[in-house]
Amino acid sequence: MIEPGRHRAACSRSRAMFRGLLLSGALLAGGMVGALQARAQMPAQRVAVLDLVVADADGQAILASDVDDEIRFSALLPGAEPAADNTPQRALNRVIDRALIDQQRALQPGVGLVSQKDVDQAIDTMRKQISAATHIDCENDAVWDAYLTQHGFSSSEVEKRMRQRLAILKFIDVRFGVVVQVSNADVRNYYDQVLTPELEQARQPLPEFRAVVPKIRQILRQRRVSNLIDEWLKSLRAEGHVQILDPAFADAGNSADAASRKGSQ
Questions:
Q1: Angle CA(216)–CA(81)–CA(9) in degrees, nearest 5?
Q2: Which of 81, 174, 247, 265 sits in a 20 to 30 Å window from 30, CA-based?
Q3: 131 and 137 in contact (C-beta within 8 Å)?
Q4: What does pTM read for this prediction?
């Protein structure tokens, strides 16, 4: 059995070296704890620490390196995830949510398929957003590759992550989007009761109602879908027996929250 959290501090230094071993099944339960304890007695420069399992999402192991990758990827796009929210606990929440959604998506293999064109367009948009936020010309291929390397990613890894996120968004839209309806009365109420007071308080001009109907309808639809996803993820966590194995991530064992869901998507 892997001892949770024992060598987490050294995990990031050896993640790349041992990822291939982990993926090929080298993390065998028998004798692992004893082996790690024996290595702990060796000189520091000779110690090789394996990746750690920090959580279990319905039988799927979540590694410390998965959490580390999630934190770094969320920081890749400035402003996408506020630094105060990009904590290990919230990052683990996002990883768990994605794992649970992917398990559900696998039950419907025809849903959530994403084309290469969709992935390329999403990455192009991401590069433009980073360029605008950082004033680094990430639309230049060489600069983009250097930027990714600086953050510990390759272009293929970013493409894989983007494909997964788009697939999840598409799956969620198919599952929940069709059942969410926003009436004209709902739109009008938002315009009168929410938008108008906010703009008046900010002393900003109020746009004509017709001009903002599509945007308001989209906002209300996203909110309702978001609420449905929250409840769905809570039920998946309850049914899937999510377990947090590392005490350092104990807060991530609570229910899913908006920050987690945002990262999941």
A1: 160
A2: 247
A3: yes
A4: 0.65
The answer to whether residues 63 and 22 touch, using CB atoms and an 8 Å cutoff, is: yes
Q: Is the four-CA dihedral 161, 166, 167, 171 of positive or negative sign?
A: positive
Nearest Cα neighbor of 206 from 217, 219, 192 is 192
Using alpha carbons, list the distances in angstroms from residue 147 to 15, 138, 157, 213. 20, 7, 13, 39
Cα–Cα dist 10/69, whole Å = 15
Kindly tell me the sign of the dihedral angle through the C-alpha atoms of 54, 58, 59, 60: negative
Q: From CA 96, how far away is CA 237, in angstroms rounded?
A: 9
Helix, strand, or coil (residue 257): coil
Q: In angstroms, rounded to a whole number, what is the distance separating the alpha carbons of residues 33 and 183?
A: 59
pLDDT tens-place string over residues 88-120: 999 999 999 999 998 888 888 777 788 999 999
